[in-house]
Amino acid sequence: HFAAVEMVPGDPILGLSEAYVADTRPGKVNLGVGIYYDEQGRIPLLRAVREVEQALALEAKPRGYLPIDGLATYNVATQKLVFGEDSPLLAAGRVATAQTIGGSGALRIGADLLKQVLPIAKIAISNPSWENHRVVFGSAGFEVLTYAYYDAATHGLDFPGMLADLGKLEPGTVVLLHACCHNPTGVDLNAEQWQQVVELVKERKLLPFIDMAYQGFDVGIDADATAVRLFAASGIEAFIVANSYSKSFSLYGERVGALSVVGKDRDEAARVLSLVKRTIRSNYSSPSTHGGALVSGVLNSTELKAMWEQELAEMRERIHAMRAGMVEKLAAAGAPQFAFIQEQAGMFSYSGLTKAQVDRLREEYAIYAVGTGRICVAALNRANLDTVVNAVAAVSR
Ligand code: PLP
Ligand code: TYF
């Protein structure tokens, strides 16, 4: 049966982590995978999460199935976080939300949903984008196009190129947009630029699909959702948001995310939810209980939500401090050309390092980065910063 199966190349980012684990050199640093590490180099278990987890352990509740669309308290809290407490869309009942298996599950359920209803299955993703966007939408039967995004010359946004490419898309094309903390570049749109994209998308009758995997990792929960809020206020009848709590709750392995589909009115949203549920049923039937209960427990307690917001703020402030420290130290080490790292947002920076330089970092200095030059600045800390800076300065000479 399987004789003809060929070896499929693995995920390059996750493959890097395997190589890192196998590396026996002391002082090795993994700037590859997108995970937030604390000052001690550990994946944090947030205090707010721990509180809920301990309470849940004491309750020792039975583990029946969740509904197909997940925990209702989780979905309602998610809607408020994504669309805002006072969102008119929520008041109008226009949003259908389902708990999913991480942000990845939301992308896949969203893709499978759209494939069933759209007359053309085309999606445009940014150049570059998270590689799984292409994999997920391609596997769901979409033709995957790209739009200009990153400008290597400025290490910033090619906004004219982006508008020009979006303006050429066929009406009905899905446009995948990163809400904030763009993966892999760290380059985001400002509010004025978002507003221009909203207007173009509206005029060209495109269907926005917003991927929000890093809400709260740059400026704050509401500020980082600017794209969602502007689309919501635009009068556009339909758009989609996939959000993930993997990073914002430091719950990577619990697989917590949600898919929210905005419809024209309450009735349309109800019909869409029925199709979302059938799509989930045909994939994995229902999501798992534990991660959703943790997130819901935090978001539905005033006290724990405030604690979580504080912990999230600490994570993003630490990232900002690491960006600033890296830029300052690189300049002191004779590499002032990296000042742009401080302008980029979130966990990642497209550092501009070439494949050859990345190879040298790994081979000579045991520092792991993605071949594209993407580094995870959220893996820097006071103990490894000098090592990284000196190595980057050395390979840049
Ligand atoms: N979207 C982007 C842009 C991401 O970087 C990630 C990261 O993992 C995801 C989606 C998927 O999130 P999750 O790990 O919750 O599936
Ligand atoms: O881009 C990253 O590093 C994260 C983690 O197949 C990730 O989004 C990477 C690859 C992958 C799944 C998650």
Automatic annotation (TrEMBL):
Names of required cofactors: pyridoxal 5'-phosphate
Residue stretches spanning the membrane: none
Gene3D superfamilies documented for this protein: Aspartate Aminotransferase, domain 1, Type I PLP-dependent aspartate aminotransferase-like (Major domain)
Signal peptide (residue range): none
GO CC, alphabetical: cytosol
GO biological process, one term: L-phenylalanine biosynthetic process from chorismate via phenylpyruvate
GO molecular function: identical protein binding; L-tyrosine-2-oxoglutarate transaminase activity; pyridoxal phosphate binding
Pfam families (alphabetical): Aminotran_1_2 (PF00155)
Database matches in InterPro entries: Aminotransferase_I/II_large, Asp_trans, NHTrfase_class1_PyrdxlP-BS, PyrdxlP-dep_Trfase, PyrdxlP-dep_Trfase_major, PyrdxlP-dep_Trfase_small
CDD domains per the UniProt record, alphabetical: AAT_like (cd00609)
Residue ranges of domain Aminotransferase class I/classII large in the record: 27-391
Keyword Transferase: yes
EC number: 2.6.1.-
The keyword Transferase is annotated on this UniProt entry: yes
Keywords: Aminotransferase, Pyridoxal phosphate, Transferase
NCBIfam families noted in UniProt: PRK09257.1 (NF006719)
Complex formation: Homodimer.
Family of the protein in this entry: Belongs to the class-I pyridoxal-phosphate-dependent aminotransferase family.
Protein's UniProt name: Aminotransferase
Lineage, broadest ranks: Bacteria, Pseudomonadati, Pseudomonadota, Gammaproteobacteria, Lysobacterales
